[in-house]
Amino acid sequence: MAWIMTNHHGYLRLGFRFRGVECREGTKLKDTPENRRRLQAKADQIQDEIEHGIFEYRRHFPKGTRAYLFEPGSETHVQMSRIAFARYAMQWLEENAYALTPSTYASYRTAIHQHVVPFFGALPLAEVTDAHLKRFIAHLQRQPGKRGRLMGPKSINNYVSPLKAMLKEAVQKQLLTSDPTAFIRRLRVPRPDVDPFSPEEIAQFLTMVTPHYRTYFHLAFLTGMRPHEQIALKWGNLDFVHRTIAVREGRVGKVEGLPKTEQSIRDIDMLEPVYDLLRHHRSETLLRSDYVFLNQGGRPIDLTTLRRRIWYPGLKRAGVRRRALYQTRHTCATLMLATGENPEWIAKQLGHTSTQMLFQRYAKFIPNVTRQDGTAFLRAYRQWFPVRTGVGDVGG
After folding, report:
1. What's the CATH code of the domain at 113?
2. The total number of structural domains that make up the chain
3. What is the pLDDT of residues 120-170, one digit of tens each?
4. For residue 348, how far is the Cα from the chain centroid?
5. Can you tell me whether residue 289 is helix, strand or coil?
6. 126 with 223, same domain?
7. How far apart are CA 222 and CA 206, in angstroms?
8. Is residue 184 part of a domain?
9. Does residue 183 sit within a domain?
10. Which CATH number do you get for residue 366?
11. Exposure string over 374-385, b if 16+ CB within 10 A, otherwise e
């Protein structure tokens, strides 16, 4: 980051690091509070431009003492372009870590250290072409993925994404004369089918699932929260007075950060059965943790363990067709649409960017548009699950 200092004559100087070089430029400003504020504004601007790859040394310092180092063709500029691409990738990751969520940083780090470094080796940054990137993608397609299968297109796209970002930045910094990613297209990712549960399947599953997790799954079907949002839910996010659930965090592995998108930061209306479930759960857990849901050992829930040891065995015991855990979210969306709730209200509940996503994903489940406050869904819910069916009172 940029910093401010004074010289032995009492004048302010501005320091910053650019392309790995420490730079210090003098000013004619005396060291006063007002001049420090003025120079700090310039320091913030320079730092922002450096981080976005648009900093031009001579524009800020026409007679700068180190401007010559960063002119195209200068020794430093040439040295930077000759740096090994693998090394440049690692430097880029650390320089941009501040702007990445913990899970994204972990994913990028895995891509760079496990795949980029071994594949590109000592190849200079300036020599990377689209042919190298295409061969890299072909290399990834031969690598093992999940459950013994080859790496899928979604994982490959996630690994190629940071390469595109860092190479575009290299073009902005004039370390490359052209963008080698210009002709690299994302691989087509098959969209997973929406395979919602029927009300009868929900009831059967909730009856057979491990009792400790019954409220967790019941809430998942009723709110449509993403699994990583629900396991990060804390009691402080629940407002029992205004009956809302504040979705503010997500948990991936042992790392917590912001939810999936900006729209994912939302307040969910706490419908009556959700309110009753959470009040009962609160009385049973006695708020022994900040987290609303814990595993049977009293620790935050791990999604991989939840799927393997609780979700899939519960489906099997219930005689319900095997589905991904994320189908609880699809089930909530489709049941609300089927009852005629207003798509705008549903999109707000789910944290979708617009109703267009609802129409694209769930078009066949939309019979009409009637209500916009959850009452249509509640009316159908009470028909599906009368109070004494064993589902309406599964708060434990």
Report:
1. 1.10.150.130
2. 3
3. 988 888 889 999 999 999 999 999 887 778 999 999 999 999 999 999 988
4. 18
5. coil
6. no
7. 12
8. no
9. no
10. 1.10.443.10
11. bebbbebbeebb
- 76 three-class SS: helix
Q: Give residue-wise pLDDT tens across range 282-325.
A: 999 888 899 999 999 999 999 999 999 999 999 999 999 999 99
Judge if 116 and 236 occupy the same domain. no
* Residues 105 and 147 reside in one and the same domain: yes
Residue among 131, 127, 21 nearest 77 (CA): 21
Contacts of 101 (CB under 8 A, 6+ apart): 257, 258
3-state helix, strand, coil in the chain (%, to 5): 55, 10, 35
CA angle 245-249-250, nearest 5°? 115
**Residues 210 and 313 placed together within one structural domain of the fold:** yes
Could you tell me which residues come within 8 angstroms of residue 73 by beta carbon, excluding any fewer than 6 positions away? none
* pLDDT the model gives residue 178: 85
CA-CA distances (angstroms) from residue 329 to 31, 138, 235?
59, 34, 21
Strands of the sheet containing 266-269, edge to edge, are 238-239, 244-247, 266-269
Domain annotation covers residue 222: yes
Q: Which long-range contacts (CB under 8 A, 24 or more apart) does 61-64 make?
A: 61/25, 64/23, 64/25
pTM for the model: 0.65
Query: What is the tens place of the pLDDT at every residue in 30-43?
Result: 999 999 999 999 99
Domain span at residue 114?
83-172
Q: Are strands 250-252 and 255-257 parallel, antiparallel or unpaired?
A: antiparallel
- Between 332 and 80, whose confidence is greater? 332
Q: How is 361-381 classified by DSSP, letter by letter?
A: HHGGG-----BSSSHHHHHHH
Residues 97 and 9 in one domain: no
Roughly what angle, to the nearest 10 degrees, separates helices 85-96 and 153-172? 90
